[in-house]
């Protein structure tokens, strides 16, 4: 950081990124130097063999090349480990060392050609087996190094590198025509470069007009995000490490403060006395939560055979193979009559996996009416089912599972919702608005809902309700599809699991609370990501990079368990930085970012959070986290919480497990209280609501409380003693343990 300039061109690699490549080459060349020295000077060669004499001369010259390589690579390692991410002065001579190393590489290339010539002349006629093997080894080693360097150069090549250097050479903040033209060329070049990368990534797919439009829009998005930034990929990795450290430090600092309303953090979210937990002791609330858990099964089934095999890798394959009939065996009936399957593979694996999913869950009353496996940009797979037990027709939309789905995800500009009878300015995620329009059009053209509601008139399917569900991309599309269908089906309900953060404008989000229930698990990244959220994330990332004084290799290695956490680089608060450590463009942190309409997650949000028990030693059993369900604020998901779990907790089966664990922990807490009181009471007679933790009234003198609850009482002096823990996310293990605690007495005076 910034990108190194070699041959008057900027490259997509920093001068502090060369530590590992140089160490690898140094070890390779050192090993080969030792082996070649032993072979050349430790063995006796036949002086009458011309091939042996040529080998000795060639090998001695190659030893000199290896020694030169080792010296240059040691210099690269030493220089690359100096300075900090932005403190590049100690590495300014790196480009000259690279020039020397490239000159040596040219000599290596010449020696590799000479080695090939020797092999063609003497390999068959030479009787010295050692000479032949040594020469072959030198040639192979040479070409491996040369090809690896060439591939690395291609990977770090920046097509806009020369324009970037010219722009940097202009005076800072200069507003003349030349600066404007260079900036325009740079932006166009970056957009073209990103578009080319996307096309290479999706080279095996057939390109439609909509896909080409998606390429250009997403390329512009990436070019806009990285505009005016002289950063390389490793800087982003180091920035994420530093940002995670900063977030943890801030949470610890908040907990150590004496006067604030935040009592603890669960999954990175602050918990206060005003935090609203789901009142699961309330029968209506419990039924609603169980309904949320139930329809997650429909969202999970939409992923077809890939997710089915991921959840059941052994027996799942056998189940699918037993029910599957490929085009080689057309005589076996594959689907029940009245089921429409569109664009499934020749074995019908997706439709069969959906059906097997419900059979495995003992949901035999679910009939699949229509399954569309058609997958394209802005055209998402979905299926329609009739649930006779719940008397509902369910539309389930698949989440992201293909590169085309990723293009739909990334087309995140604001688009007007085409809702009948509404003339306001409801806005939504463009890619998902187009996907919802496609599904609505498909339902109307194929008359799918008419078939579903007329499936079995004798069982009253005509009067069934309509449910729309989805996960991730499917959740956002389901929420917007609910807007489009609600004029025809006013009693419609939508369940959106892990929806994207940049989905609906504020007015549309408020309206969606009438019929959309969203679920977010823990530190899931997707509900916190939208264009407006990315702008804030960009500022935070640049800020932590600018404040860091540690070498990049130390930061990245410190994120692993290779060194103790106490040696992680600490953030240094610096009020002013030397001009030599500023960004290439002084406006990087103050530049007016592109104005994008703030978009939010949909509906009423159930946020499933959990505590983080302290890590135990390897010989002790790790305590399981305790899960809770709280009502989330749509505008509170505006910060990306950096964590190893931010991607894992987005997986659909992990979301389902988290929902179920809330019920498990609730039942454990109920059992613990009953055991503690040693009385048989109705669950509604014992207040299990976690809000009791944060009540300001004194503890009742009734039945004893579990130990974990008493420790979270908000008395100021008691709270401070609890907050002295090093963990920023505290344990509420009392919900899952049945230990007794006598009523808390006031603390004794010091």
From TrEMBL:
GO terms for molecular function: lipoprotein lipase activity; metal ion binding; monoacylglycerol lipase activity. It holds the Pfam family Lipase_3. It is a multi-pass membrane protein. It is an enzyme of class 3 (hydrolase). The keyword Transmembrane applies. It comes from the Eukaryota. The keyword tRNA-binding does not apply. GO terms for biological process: arachidonate metabolic process; diacylglycerol catabolic process; retrograde trans-synaptic signaling by endocannabinoid. Residues 394-529 form the Fungal lipase-type domain. Keywords: Calcium, Cell membrane, Cell projection, Endosome, Glycoprotein, Hydrolase, Lipid degradation, Lipid metabolism, Membrane, Metal-binding, Phosphoprotein, Postsynaptic cell membrane, Synapse, Transmembrane, Transmembrane helix. Its cofactor is Ca(2+). It is found in: Cell projection, Dendritic spine membrane; Early endosome membrane; Postsynaptic density membrane. It catalyses: 1-(9Z-octadecenoyl)-2-(5Z,8Z,11Z,14Z-eicosatetraenoyl)-sn-glycerol + H2O = 2-(5Z,8Z,11Z,14Z-eicosatetraenoyl)-glycerol + (9Z)-octadecenoate + H(+); a 1,2-diacyl-sn-glycerol + H2O = a 2-acylglycerol + a fatty acid + H(+); 1-(9Z-octadecenoyl)-2-octadecanoyl-sn-glycerol + H2O = 2-octadecanoylglycerol + (9Z)-octadecenoate + H(+); 1-(9Z-octadecenoyl)-2-O-(5Z,8Z,11Z,14Z-eicosatetraenyl)-sn-glycerol + H2O = 2-O-(5Z,8Z,11Z,14Z)-eicosatetraenylglycerol + (9Z)-octadecenoate + H(+). Residues 697-750 are annotated as: Disordered. GO terms for cellular component: dendritic spine membrane; early endosome membrane; postsynaptic density membrane. The chain crosses the membrane at residues 18-41, 61-81, 102-123, 135-157, 292-310. Its EC number is 3.1.1.116. Interacts (via C-terminal) with CAMK2A; leading to the phosphorylation and inhibition of DAGLA enzymatic activity. Interacts (via PPXXF motif) with HOMER1 and HOMER2; this interaction is required for DAGLA membrane localization. Belongs to the AB hydrolase superfamily. Lipase family. PANTHER family: DIACYLGLYCEROL LIPASE HOMOLOG-RELATED, DIACYLGLYCEROL LIPASE-ALPHA. This is Diacylglycerol lipase-alpha. It comes from Neovison vison.
């Amino acid at each position: 950081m910034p990108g190194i300039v070699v041959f008057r061109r900027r490259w997509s690699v920093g001068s502090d990124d060369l530590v590992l490549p140089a160490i690898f080459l140094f070890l390779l060349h050192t090993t080969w130097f030792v082996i070649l020295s032993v072979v050349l000077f430790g063995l006796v060669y036949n002086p009458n063999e011309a091939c042996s004499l040529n080998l000795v001369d060639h090998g001695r010259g190659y030893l000199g090349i290896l020694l030169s390589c080792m010296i240059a690579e040691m210099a690269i390692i030493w220089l690359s480990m100096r300075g900090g991410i932005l403190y590049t002065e100690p590495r300014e001579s790196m480009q000259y060392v690279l020039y020397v190393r490239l000159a040596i590489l040219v000599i290596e290339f010449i020696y590799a050609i000479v080695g090939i010539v020797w092999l063609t002349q003497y390999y068959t006629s030479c009787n010295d087996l050692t000479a032949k093997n040594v020469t072959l080894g030198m040639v192979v080693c040479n070409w491996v190094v040369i090809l690896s360097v060439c591939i690395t150069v291609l990977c770090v090549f920046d097509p806009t590198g020369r324009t970037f250097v010219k722009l940097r050479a202009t005076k800072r903040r200069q507003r003349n025509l030349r600066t404007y033209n260079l900036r325009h060329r740079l932006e166009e070049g970056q957009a073209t470069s990103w578009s080319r990368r996307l096309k290479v990534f999706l080279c095996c797919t057939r390109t439609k007009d909509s896909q080409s439009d998606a390429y250009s829009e997403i390329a512009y998005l990436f070019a806009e995000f990285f505009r005016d930034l002289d950063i390389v990929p490793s800087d982003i990795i180091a920035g994420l490490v530093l940002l995670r450290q900063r977030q943890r430090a801030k949470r610890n600092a908040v907990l150590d403060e004496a006067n604030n309303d935040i009592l603890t953090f669960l999954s990175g979210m602050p918990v206060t006395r005003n935090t609203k937990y789901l009142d699961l002791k309330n029968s209506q609330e419990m039924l609603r939560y169980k309904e949320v858990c139930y329809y997650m099964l429909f969202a999970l089934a939409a992923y077809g055979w890939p997710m089915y095999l991921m959840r059941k890798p052994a027996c799942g394959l056998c189940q699918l193979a037993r029910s599957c009939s490929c085009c080689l065996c057309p005589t076996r009936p594959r689907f029940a009559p009245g089921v429409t399957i569109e664009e499934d593979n020749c074995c019908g694996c997706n439709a069969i996996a959906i059906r097997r999913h419900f059979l495995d869950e003992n949901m035999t009353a679910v009939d699949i009416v229509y399954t569309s496996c058609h997958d394209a940009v802005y055209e998402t797979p979905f299926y329609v089912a009739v649930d006779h037990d719940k008397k509902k027709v369910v539309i389930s939309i698949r989440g992201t599972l293909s590169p085309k789905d990723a293009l739909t995800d990334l087309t995140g500009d604001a688009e007007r919702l085409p809702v009948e009878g509404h003339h306001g300015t409801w806005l939504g995620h463009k890619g998902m608005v187009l996907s919802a329009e496609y599904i609505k059009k498909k339902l109307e053209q194929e008359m799918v809902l008419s078939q579903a509601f007329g499936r079995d008139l004798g069982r009253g399917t005509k009067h069934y309700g309509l449910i729309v569900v989805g996960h991730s991309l499917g959740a956002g599309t389901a929420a917007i599809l609910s807007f489009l269908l609600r004029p025809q089906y006013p009693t419609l309900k939508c369940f959106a699991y892990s929806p994207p953060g940049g989905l609906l404008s504020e007015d549309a989000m408020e309206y969606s609370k009438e019929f959309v229930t969203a679920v977010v698990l823990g530190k899931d990244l997707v509900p916190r990501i939208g264009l407006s959220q990315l702008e804030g994330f960009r500022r935070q990332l640049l800020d932590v990079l600018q404040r860091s004084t540690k070498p990049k290799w130390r930061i990245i290695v410190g994120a692993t368990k290779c060194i103790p956490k106490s040696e992680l680089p600490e953030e240094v608060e610096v009020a002013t930085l030397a001009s030599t450590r500023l960004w290439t463009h002084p406006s990087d942190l103050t530049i007016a970012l592109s104005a994008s309409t703030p978009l939010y997650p949909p509906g009423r949000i159930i946020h499933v959070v959990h505590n983080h028990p302290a890590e135990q030693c390897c010989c002790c059993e790790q305590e399981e986290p305790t899960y809770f369900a709280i009502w989330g604020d749509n505008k509170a998901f505006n910060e990306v919480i950096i964590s190893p779990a931010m991607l894992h907790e987005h997986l659909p089966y992990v979301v389902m497990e988290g929902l179920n664990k809330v019920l498990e922990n609730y039942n454990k807490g109920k059992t613990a209280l009953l055991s503690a009181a040693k009385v048989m009471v109705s669950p509604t007679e014992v207040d299990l609501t976690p809000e009791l933790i944060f009540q300001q009234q004194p503890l009742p003198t009734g039945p004893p409380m579990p130990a974990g609850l008493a420790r979270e009482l908000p008395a100021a002096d008691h709270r401070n003693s609890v907050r002295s823990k090093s963990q920023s996310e505290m344990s509420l293990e009392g919900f899952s343990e049945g230990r007794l605690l006598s009523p808390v007495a006031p603390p004794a005076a010091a």
